[in-house]
Amino acid sequence: MNKIDRMVSAIDPAAEYAEPSMGQGVQDLLAEIVATPPARRRPSWTPMRRPVLAGLAVAGIAAAALVAVPLVSGAPSAAYAVVKNADGTVQVTVKEFRDPDGLEAMLRSAGIVADVTFTEADKQCARGRFVGADLAYDPPSTKNMTEQQRKEFDKPDNWRSRDVAAPINKDTFVISPRFMRPEETLVLEFRPGNYAGMDYAFLPYLAKAGSPIAPCRLVKANSDEELAKKLAGN
Fold it and tell me: How many distinct helices (H) and strands (E) make up the chain?
């Protein structure tokens, strides 16, 4: 055995490594980490469920939703309330048909670009104010559609206006921005119902990005009788 071999054999492998010392604070932190169970990982998607509304009349025909709701006049509460939820949706409660500019401003502060109009019961805005972002604003006739055209017509993406603003109770609706595309405007038209049992009509539409929205030109409103009968099951 030469000199180098004798030097190597004299080294104690166990003595070569010494456990590094830890202060008491580090030891306490390590003990806390070991004792804490890992947090459950939340899924990256959430299944959407439409609420089942008991005792509430809601219809969606050509993006129109008729809702049975008591109208409040001269109440001490605010005409409306806007709340942004943690999931990004915006909850809107309408008590009185007044101050559309104020409602637009509150929606804007919640991240929603909107055009709001309140009309009388026997009036509605004339069509042609803007270019619709989907088929809800100006739906084509389905009378002579082929099967393939009908499948295209029925695609959910063609009816986003019906999902972007949906009633959840008698005087409240929820806006889901995920159904809106960049630069689109949410157009909301409200009017008192003009048939027994229909307290107000709520019509949400999406205006195409870049489309100007003309002022509302009032025309005679369609009768709510047909929708009322559909809701009653006749």
Answer: 7, 10
